[in-house]
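Hi Prof. W.,

I finally got the SOSS complex subunit A homolog prediction working! I wasn't sure whether to trim anything, so I left the full sequence exactly as given:
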Amino acid sequence: MEQTKASSPKLFVCTAIENKDEIEERYERAYVYFQSLVADCSEKEAHDALNNAVCKNHEEVSLGMLMSILTEPHNSTKCYRDLTLISRDGLTCVLNNLSNLILERYLKFQETTRNQLVWLIKEMIRNAVNGVDSVCWNLMRYASGGDITPKNIFLVESLLDVYIDSKSWLDKFPVLICMVVYTYLRLIEDHNVPHLIALRQKEVNFVIALIREHFDEILSLGRDLVRLLQNVARIPEFNQLWQDILLNPKTLSPTFTNVLQLLQTRTSRRYLQSRLTPDMERKLVFLTSQVRFGHHKKYQEWFQRQYLATPESQSLRSDMIRFIVGVIHPTNELLCSDIIPRWAVIGWLLTTCTSNVAASNAKLALFYDWLFYDPEKDNIMNIEPAILVMHHSMRSHPAVTATLLDFLCRIIPNFYPSFADKVRQGIFNSLQQIIEKRVLPNLQPLFDSPKLDRELRTTVRETFKEFCSNGEGVSGFKEEGMDDVTRGPDEPAFSDDEDDPMPIIAEDTDDDDLPLSEVRARERPELAAALPSALRPFAETLLDERTAAAATALLNACNPPMPTPTALADLFAAVLQDLPPLKISSNPSSAELDLKLSSPIFSMFDLLQSGASDSKKLISETFKEIYAQNSIPSLGYSLLFYLKVCYERDRRAERDPAKKRNVKFKMDIYKSYCSNLELKLVESLADDFEKCQECDSNVLIWLVPDVYREFKEQVQNHVRLLHIIVSTIDAGQLQRLVCLTLQGNLMMFKTDDFTTMLSTSLSWETFEQYCLWQLLTAHEISVDDVLPIIPKLSYKEHAEALTSVLLMLKQERPTPDVLRQIFCREIDDGDTFVVSTVMYWCQDYEDKVADLLAVLLSTRYPGTSPNKRKRPGKHTIPPNAPPSAELVLGHLEQIRVCCVEQDDMSIFNMECMQKALQQSQSNSSETLKRQYMDLFSLAWEDELPMLRRARKLASNSMPLNANLHSSNEDSEEEEIVKPKQAKRRKKAISDSD
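And this is what came out:
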């Protein structure tokens, strides 16, 4: 396989001012490596070289060949053939990297790269490569709606041709079939211009065939399939399909009854997500999770220019609204923050729409989940944005509220007349849930606002009369106080600062589409009615007082007939939901800690610790129910908090120091808690720490020493637990942990599996890594423990870890093992780690460093006689050990350049270094000799002049020679105690009169 060695081809389109990113640099390095293996080789030699290299650097070789395929059409066929021959994992590595490359950088691909990508997918499909369907899925996301530019049309048509040509392959992937149908149904809507008629007809024929052949699979698309089919209903082929759906459903599938079957099925999030490109998705997620109100306009203007500037792009608004409604489900913490809310983004999309058709489709997209809403199956987060858009727009944009209310009234009889009653019921279910879940406490101010015109108000009152009578909603939540609500100056709005306060969705913290039936009612009558009659007065007292004493009284009164665990779980969840979360000061007193135990939840822990067996069983079953409901997230870490308070209390009660030392932390209770819930101990601890840090970092830090003492076998070096801690603490809390470590009260690490933990930490944030290394330093971790990761650290990507290791090495003396590991690092002109370490050591240990460097260099050449240079065992490096000769020479060249800049070549003038340079020069290839010509030029060709040689032997070589020929006793003494040379670096602070 002969390949011409030329300048590295380009994957991406880059401007003159753009720097290469890490992805581009990675692929270029892999390409250069691949070319170095096959350049100037025959086909057989190239195959042999690739097979040898792939054993050690499988991913590097694969990426290099992938880049060659994507950028060099003339070599692609041969390169793909070779790739399939050498691949050790069925091309899994290539497919994973290709998917990531598409998701991250497709928009920057060169035209050649885009063409070759389609060619590569065709080849993989033709060869039935496993996993290529996921690549198709990811690439199809870039076939954007609302875009008829040549680049987008090329992708749309190319993928369509691939699917048509590979129909038998496509038939094997039902999920991909659904994605193809959903995507092209959406695209057909945009392809109604004259020059795309041929493409549209090809799309129509293909999609109709897929729907009819795979209708059972297509049914899983749910209600949004109907929405897309409505948009193309005027096309003859789809008109006929509609006739069959409505009138002859059995001709499509024996299991298909009518269109209601589709409309009552919620469309999966992944399909809603698929109609935005990954780039659009990232921007919308950023806008709704990171941008504060008051700073949002510039982001919206940029988004408008980037994605919504053309007439064709108006249809994208429906896709974006469906994505925001169905996929972006913020947590309650985000809802309570000053981040721009979903309803404000949707309001902006509606008010900036310039097409009547697009505006109608956008409103339908907003209300689509209302029409057949089922509380048992659907999520309240899908209906929340629409009601909040109407509510918040009433003050500053009453026209928006009016048009949405008008649309909601008209959609009931007009969506599908035969289903008018079902649409009405779906909308009523939605409004009922909105009131029950307190999204809005009352609908009357919205439905009967004086800002609405008289005709619309009449229509609304007639349509929703159940929600407009006597100023109360259907659940009886009164209107009291609604007129007294004040507005803050920074509330979100479309174009001004006036608005109502941000509502909080109580109790619905689910972000994973859990059925709403699992969110249990908390109203008092139902809670009390679920308990035995003897306990109801105690329950009423507990709901009124919300104290530990009331909870204890209730639990002590639990006698046969016992309450059900579900009833107790619901009761305690209702009691705790309005209480302040568990928080303490940074240095809590015993009085403060005892006060915290007055919360009702700790009464259950008291019973768990000292109650009768029946009571313990009831509490354990109640904990199971609470965990299943996730109704009290603080349960686990509250138990840890309780156990520590009890431990501290017991220690204070013992005055005898000996007995005080024997007080035990009752960790068995927490272990039993985990066992009862069928949880792994360490994962439960991590989950509880994660929930604790969201509530109060002081509680977390207060628990850390005891958790690491009592569960040390499970938690030491546990990466997730450690990450939670360092991602939570501030500088003061870090200092506290360091002090506890120095006092001997905290041990967070062990040497087992240390490298894995350090490698994982490299992806953490800068401050998190800083905290980790401070803790490692406090634990006096040996430099030997971090040596294995040194060759893996990138000076660009892992600056935090590399700096910390450098400072550790600064405190160490040079040794063969350390020098060997740091010289295993790849050569990079910008990486000064090796140079900095060696040059610092030279200030105190120059002769030893020179000796070690000489041994390291000499032993890289197996041809050198082993008798030429003997050293004691400590200085001997096995000849077969890394690093390679090229790496050693490369690092020595960097050291030489540094020495030249400092005008101090003494280390290279030592006899041991001279001999090593001469030996390596004589054993190096001509290529290496040319590459390191300046380095080898430091080796003297003749014997040292007598004067220089005598001086060198007196100053440097004599101790070494004496050591070589002395007894073992002398040798050991010389290595243990060695006089330091005077430092040659300048002092940072000089003493002067």
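Confidence is low (pLDDT under 50) at residues 1-6, 470-523, 863-880, 943-993. Does that look reasonable to you?

Thanks,
D.
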